[in-house]
Amino acid sequence: MTPNAASAPSGPSRRSFLASTAVATAAVAGGMPLLAACGDSDSGSRDGTTSSKDAKKILPAYVASNVVTPDIPAKNGSAVGFTGKLDLATLKTSVPKKLGKGGKVTVMSPFWGSPPKSDNAYYKAMNDLIGVNVSWQNQDGNTYEQKLGAVLASSDVPDVVVVPGWNMNGKIPTAIISKFADLGPYLSGDAVKEYPNLAAIPTEAWQRSIFGGKLRGLPMPSPWAPSIVPLYRRDIFEKEGYEIPKSCDEFMALAKEITNAKAKRWACLDMKWTAWQAFGVFSGSEKPLWWDMVDGKLVNRIETEQYLEAIEWSRKLFEAGVVHPDSKMGKNAPDPGPKFAAGEFLIYPNNISQWWGRTAEQATQNPEFKIWGMDVWGHDGGNPTIYAEEPAGIFAFVNKKASESVIRDVLAVANVTAAPYGTKEYMMTNYGVEGTHYTVKDGVPTKTDQGNIDVMNAYVMIASPAATLAHPDFPEVAKAQVEWEQRMGAFTKKSAFWGMQITEPNRWTNLANDFEQLEDDIVRGRKKISDMQQAVSDWKSKGGDKLRDWYKKILDENGSAAS
Fold first, then answer.
1. 377 with 310: CB under 8 angstroms?
2. How confident is the model at residue 15 (pLDDT cuts 50, 70, 90)?
3. Residues 193-221, mean pLDDT to the nearest whole number
4. What DSSP string describes 292-329?
5. Among 520, 16, 27, 26, which Cα is nearest to 275's?
6. What whole-number distance in Å separates Cα of residue 448 and Cα of residue 108?
7. How confident is the model at residue 6 (pLDDT cuts 50, 70, 90)?
8. Which of 206, 225, 268, 452 could disulfide-link to 485, CB 3.0 to 4.6 Å?
9. What is the average pLDDT across 119-128?
10. What single Pfam family name could you report for this chain, choosing any that match (predicted)?
């Protein structure tokens, strides 16, 4: 699954996404050419990244899975889609024999919600399927970065540590290189074929797993098509005759038509994430994606006119009074679900996972409710320019001190959790034990109360299959999600550093930390555009220009990944 970070400047809260394990959303399946990884000539450098020549020696061979055929193949960076009902009798087997040797593996991972008891039926069934005794050290996902930093600074590091990309700040990237094992001897080249489900993970996701010149991470792949969708109440739009906007001016006009504060109806929430897309702002939760070449010069997004224009348009929506009052609270705003369902606002940008999540949430209590996704528009009415997401965003790492037997057991776990949709291993990983954790009626698996307690974000954090969208309960949503990704993927551009795992020098890692808050302050009228211009000037003088030179050196030595 690939959520978007609450702490990242370009994405909404990941909590609601990761709290659902009904679908694994991972990277586009198959066949993308190896991109220039580029970076310092020393492949073991703690700063920079790994050159394409060195990466080719490190990467696992790609062997597409033929266990299950999707109903909708991947296209333009989309997930694959499954739109049929589920028949347990026809589930395939992708792991014919246990690869685990019965050892014990401890895993520290972020967790959103209340962790289940350690001896629950789901954990027991998964461990039996794999042949490994996995012991979970679940940590609060909302404060995970602090816990992660403390653990990595100590000598007591668990066998496996899950690190989301949005937590790779400060000294954590350096700690990853010094604390975790090189998996290359077990996975590079044809060695990965011992673990067929890992071999079917797309090459670009593995490339993102190279840290300090070594293959250290087990990836949770993701589509590179956009993940942020302008979601809207299709049922109310159809009832009222509202038309989907095709420019920022049309959106403003529509927003004013919808809004009636006295009747407690507003058009939207904060639209900043959609503004990035409409104005063609370099975007992504990873800092390297904030850079790209413009007219022969490497620039950061904060230096572009598009960035200021997107912020200004977002500010005008607040100024016009069309944004729901909850959005003025910023990060601490309440869950948008209830007020969206009540029709207090009709549009909000969020992760594509909420398309299905809100549909399922309202299916019984609000049968008229219909959430859908708008196509992103160009700000002036033309086609948008949207920047590609990274092909992997969450990684599991193995302690450098782990024995070969422990590493083999971890890979046995990953080979099961990376099983594709339509297999017995996928069902166990994502749904648990039939009858205990879920039931199937008319081809639709439904979690039981126990399933909602036990089968949460645990094993899915170790490794995942190529990006998949499958909702047997609402197949029309899965179809629409994949088709939206494919349409928007056609307007998606890969920036110069797309797909590269880059570790910035520590002295500059916190340079841009205050920009998200400043963006939000300007959008809400608490600060001015001139404050941003001053902040950009300060950023340049405090190290931004030197950081530019550092990134430019990477491009000069190894080339661009842009397409």
1. no
2. very low
3. 95
4. EEETTEEEEGGGSHHHHHHHHHHHHHHHTT-B-GGGGG
5. 520
6. 26
7. very low
8. 225
9. 97
10. SBP_bac_8
Cβ atoms of residues 163 and 393 within 8 Å? no
SS3 of 184-217? HHHHCEHHHHHCHHHHCCCHHHHHCCEECCEECE
- The Cα-based distances of 20 to 25, 129, 288, 336 in angstroms read 11, 22, 29, 17
Whether the CB-CB separation of 207 and 395 falls below 8 Å is answered with no
* Of the candidates 481, 468, 416, 471, the residue with the CA atom closest to the CA atom of residue 445: 471
Mean pLDDT of the chain: 89
In whole angstroms, give the CA distance from residue 562 to residue 551: 14
Pick from 291, 308, 297: nearest CA to 533: 308
User: pLDDT per residue over 108-121, tens digit each?
Assistant: 999 999 999 999 99
The DSSP H or E segment spanning 426 is helix 424-431
Cα separations in angstroms, 523 against 156, 230, 280, 430, 497: 44, 18, 18, 39, 28
225, 487 Cβ separation under 8 angstroms: no
Residue that has been written with the tokens 């063609």 in this structure = 280
**CA 235, CA 406: separation in Å to the nearest integer?**
53
Tokens of 483: 């088709």
Check pLDDT > 70 for residue 36: no
Express each pLDDT in 255-266 by its tens digit: 999 999 999 999
144 three-class SS = helix
What is the predicted pLDDT for the residue at 41?
30
pLDDT confidence of 7, banded at 50, 70, 90? very low
Q: With cut-offs at 50, 70 and 90, classify the pLDDT of residue 24.
A: very low
**What are the structure tokens assigned to 459, written together?**
């094993």
pLDDT at 335: 87
Which pairing describes strands 392-398 and 217-221: parallel, antiparallel, or unpaired? antiparallel
CA distances from 225 to 4, 329, 354, 534, 560 (A): 13, 30, 16, 33, 19
